[in-house]
Structures are given as C-alpha cells and as structure tokens.
Design a protein that fits this description.
Blueprint lengths: L5 H6 L8 H7 L6 E11 L5 H9 L8 E11 L7 E8 L5 E12 L2 E5 L4 E10 L2 E13 L2 E5 L7 E8 L4 E10 L3 E12 L2
Antiparallel strand pairs: 1-2, 1-11, 2-3, 3-4, 4-5, 5-6, 6-7, 7-8, 7-9, 9-10, 10-11
C-alpha cells in the first residue's frame, strides 16, 4: 500500500491545491528525510522573555531573538509510526546554536497536533488559500498516557498562525506569528527557505 504523507492525509483533496514546492516540503517517505535551509528573523517583546524561556524548556519556540539566523529544517518519518518529525537547527551570526524539535500527528480531517517535550502540544487546523498552506492554532494540549487535557490559546501567548507561500520552484516563505487578544503580537519568526540538494 503506498505511503500517504501526513499532510496529504490531513488536507484530503485540498492537498492537490498546494503548489509542488509546498507539497515537496511534506512528501517524506518512511525511513527517509528531507531538508530545507533558510535565514530567519525571530522576535518578541522583551517583557515576555521569562514566559518564552519556560516554553522553550518544554521544547517549544526559540528563546533568543535574531535578524539573520541561519536555519536548517530536517524532516523524517519513522518506519514504525506515521508521525512527521521535525529537527530545526539554528545558527546565529556569533556561531551560537539552538534547536527545536517536534512531531506532528494526525487528529482528524484538516487538523493535527504538533507535540514538543513532556506531552505538550498545539492543535493546528489546516487550510489552503490561493496556493498558500495555512495553519491556525486551535488550543493547546497536554497528553499523559491516555489522558489529554486541553486549554485555550489565550492562557499562554495567544493564537498562532503559520503561512507557507511559494516563492519559486525551489523556494517558499514561512511566516509564523502569535497574537494575544489583549497584548497583540507576542512572538514571530519568518524567513525564506530553499531545498537542500
């Protein structure tokens, strides 16, 4: 039986509305991987640093700001699961490095969960708009064995939106932002990525 990429399963027929440069980003076969490389800008208000450091300790987000952060994103699909695993490695201009790992699992049509450490995750609703892949957060989860606790976005930094846009046949842009209903923009990173040949 042919492998169906996690994003294709989640999006259903909307998968075919994505341009090839975005499809390629997610068409990872079990036991194999793919990589993209880019330069990102990362930012947030200084007063939120303690909360962002706490989230970083749990495996989410990057706690250090930067304007020209070299970023390599590697994706793999383990043979024994249908998860899409992410490894993001960031190198700052002073050669200091940081990393961010996560794994995506199918939840239902047009929705998945991206887990980080200690069972914490973010529910994400997916859609395709004019060739752009859009993720919108739909609350946080904490999974412990068979028990799952859900809580709303506003309890932390706010609601996340991720937009991936085609830029050429080999490049796409990524725009990730979090907005709180009271405090506005609380976190963002953005950049342009190309495939590692």
């Amino acid at each position: 039986m042919p492998h169906i990429p996690l994003l294709q399963k989640t999006l259903g027929e909307d998968w075919h509305r994505l341009p090839p440069v975005i499809q390629r980003h997610y068409a990872v076969c079990p036991g194999f991987g793919s990589s993209v490389h880019g330069v990102m800008e990362i930012g947030y208000p200084s007063g939120l640093l303690p909360l962002i450091k706490l989230i970083h300790l749990c495996g989410g987000l990057i706690a250090r700001r930067g304007e020209t952060v070299e970023t390599r994103v590697q994706k793999t699909v383990p043979l024994q699961t249908a998860e899409l695993c992410w490894q993001r490695t960031l190198t700052y201009p002073d050669n200091q490095k940081d990393s961010f790992q996560s794994r995506m699992v199918y939840l239902q049509d047009h929705e998945l969960i991206e887990y980080v450490r200690f069972g914490f995750g973010l529910r994400l609703k997916l859609s395709v708009d004019n060739g752009n892949l859009i993720y919108r957060s739909n609350g946080h989860v904490w999974q412990c064995g068979g028990f799952r606790l859900t809580f709303p976005d506003w309890l932390l930094l706010g609601a996340a939106t991720i937009v991936e846009r085609p830029e050429s046949g080999r490049q796409f842009s990524l725009d990730f932002s979090i907005r709180h209903p009271l405090f506005g923009l609380t976190y963002y990173y953005r950049g342009v990525f190309r495939y590692c040949e």
